[in-house]
Amino acid sequence: MSDCIFCKIAAGEIPADKVYEDDKVLAFRDNHPRAPTHVLVIPKKHIASLNEASGDNIPDIAAAVAAIPQVAKADGVAESGYRVISNCGEDGGQTVFHLHFHVLGGRSFGPKLFRGDTAED
Ligand code: 5GP
Ligand code: ZN
């Protein structure tokens, strides 16, 4: 997609700090990291979000998921652990509408999803 920033990164038109690449997948460091390890794993194919996880998109999404442990291992967080997030849509907090998995590690997030961990927080 011509106006998609992650498509441009996948095509090499915009620079990124790449940590993993294969024919279907690219992983690069988030430019606004929220943890010592904060890598975005994307399918190179333009898939807007997990809402499009069906049909022909499945092999590309599966390849992105399979790359996650490799990214974690390469960054040294596979053993200590890490968190994977994919924000989907407006309420999910998605700001870039090209499917991506945030891989966050190098610090402890604890068992809670959110600070207060109630339905309202
Ligand atoms: P979302 O909010 O959609 O789940 O996550 C988008 C992420 O992409 C954010 O964490 C943001 O910091 C990151 N991001 C946005 N633009 C760029 C960019 O041009 N390069 C890199 N490396 N990360 C980006
Ligand atoms: Zn895209």
The helix-and-strand class reads alpha+beta
Number of strands: 5
Which stretches are low in confidence, meaning pLDDT under 50 for 5 or more residues running? none
CATH superfamily membership: HIT-like
The biggest sheet amounts to: 5 strands, antiparallel
**Number of distinct helices:** 3
Shape: globular
How much helix, percentage-wise, in residues? 10-25%
With strands numbered from the N-terminus, the spatial order across the biggest sheet is 1-2-3-5-4
Enter the CATH topology name: HIT family, subunit A
Which value, in Å, is the CA radius of gyration? Answer: 14 Å
First CA to last CA: what distance?
35 Å
Strand portion: 15-25%
Q: Can you offer a commentary on this structure?
A:
The chain is an alpha+beta fold and 121 residues long. The chain has one domain: HIT family, subunit A. Helices cover 22% and strands 21% of the residues. The protein is built from three helices and five strands, in the order αβββαβαβ. The chain has helices at residues 5-10, 58-74, 89-92; strands spanning 18-21, 25-29, 37-43, 82-85, 101-105. A five-stranded antiparallel sheet has the order 1-2-3-5-4, covered by helices on one side. β2 and β3 form a beta hairpin. 26% of the residues are buried. The model has no long low-confidence stretch (mean pLDDT 95). Residues 1, 4, 6-7, 46, 98 line the site of zinc ion.
